[in-house]
Amino acid sequence: MKVGVLGAGQLGRMLALAGTPLGIRCAFYDGDLTAPAAHLGQNFDQRDPAALDAFLAAVDVVTYESENISIDLAEYVAARKPLYPGPGSLRISQHRLKEKTLCNELGIPTPAFRAIHSLDDLKNAATELGLPAVLKTTTMGYDGKGQAVLRSAADVDTAWAALGKQAPLILEAFVDYTRELSLLAARNAAGEAVFYPLTENWHYQGILRYSIAPAENVPAALQQTAEDYMNRLLKQLNHVGMLTVELFETRDGRLLVNEMAPRVHNSGHWTIEGAETSQFENHLRAILGKPLGSTEARQPSAMVNIIGEHGDVDAVLRQPGAHLHLYDKDERPARKLGHINLHCHHHVELHDKIRALRDWLPADAPILKA
Ligand code: AMP
Question: Are 87 and 71 in contact (CB under 8 A)?
Fold first, then answer.
């Protein structure tokens, strides 16, 4: 079977790597012939007008590695080849207002929010929701881009000046969360679904820096609640493939959905060595209609992102139980260049192993202070 991937970034690269032992080949549609996945399969150059049809003719099923692809492209593809996750999942997850509205319709809690079309809307919403609040673009936001935190009334005009041109926007009540969690699930066309254990994530300047999985101190009821929310979304969207939901855990133990991604996700990279079946393999299995694999964690696991600079990666190779994953990208500030996976018998030991990677973490990472 040949899977076509729209985009040839690191997610495409790890999909191709996961497919290889199963005899699944990937082909890519991307305008950058030096992209991380470009050497791992046949590459169709997006800049060539004939490339899209050639790409579609060469593959059995199509998927994507970013929800920021155009709906027009998704619909063109879906009319010719099975596209998973389908355009419905894509349409919702690329628009923060639609995403949160759907969650609330399905009884899934989110931070309180308002749609913002004008400065007046913003002033009224800031009064209704109270400050602090977070103003976000509805589309194309990632890694904390297109966002402004409003702390005082004076910030309202500044935030509008910065983001108003991209209206409609969404204003969200600021959640004083205790931690950020994510739930990853895979569903196939037969409606079978599997759920990974909740993962704890720590972000710095909007970018994921490290994850711990399974997250600690997760009562069975919390995992169950997260799976229940996920199940409602999977069924409503008739979703096929991986779906990731990012959650805030509040002081009183509730889960609020922040956003979702219809794809494999950075917070699931630990599954490569840490779970019985990686998120990449389960995504391929799901979109090819194959049985889904066990999502059980083999051991407590962690993932540390390599951001901006590679650093002394040989030191990672020297650390027992550490697994280096590089994406073949040039260094650039804030760019995801790779990640390091860790696993060991106990969470306490895992924390020590994460601390040993302090060169790859910001100085104020909570794990370094613990
Ligand atoms: P997002 O792009 O929505 O994932 O937001 C990036 C980061 O900003 C999140 O990981 C949170 O750390 C923070 N953030 C986003 N929305 C809120 C909110 N409503 N309340 C508090 N923090 C938020």
Answer: yes
Residue 236 C-alpha to ligand 1 middle, in angstroms?
25
Which residue's C-alpha comes closest to atom 17 of ligand 1? Answer: 174
Q: In ligand 1, which atom is closest to the CA atom of 258? A: 3
The C-alpha angle 196, 197, 201, rounded to 5 degrees, equals: 105
pLDDT digits (tens, 9 = 90+) for 315-360: 999 999 999 999 999 999 999 999 999 999 999 999 999 999 999 9
Confidence of residue 146 (pLDDT cuts 50, 70, 90): confident
Please give the distance, rounded to the nearest whole angstrom, from the Cα atom of residue 165 to the centre of ligand 1: 21
Determine the Cα–Cα distance for residues 63 and 259; give it in Å rounded to an integer: 20
Average pLDDT score over the chain: 96
Cis peptide before 36 (omega within 30 of 0): no
Ligand 1 centroid – CA 135 distance (Å): 10
Which neighbouring-strand residues pair with 64?
Answer: 6
Q: How far apart are CA 124 and CA 201, in angstroms?
A: 33
Q: For the segment 194-242, what is each residue's pLDDT rounded down to a tens digit?
A: 999 999 999 999 899 999 999 999 999 999 999 999 999 999 999 999 9
* pTM of the full structure: 0.96
Please determine, for residue 142, whether its predicted confidence score (pLDDT) is greater than 70: no
pLDDT at 167: 87
Distance set, CA 61 to CA 43, 84, 313 (Å): 15, 8, 36
**Site residues for ligand 1, CB cut-off 6 Å:** 111, 134, 141, 144, 172, 174-175, 180, 203, 206, 246, 258-259
Domains of the chain: 2-83 (3.40.50.20), 112-173 (3.30.1490.20), 177-360 (3.30.470.20)
SS3 call for 179: strand
Which residue in this structure is represented by tokens 């759907």? Answer: 102
- Say if residues 4 and 62 touch (Cβ distance below 8 Å): yes
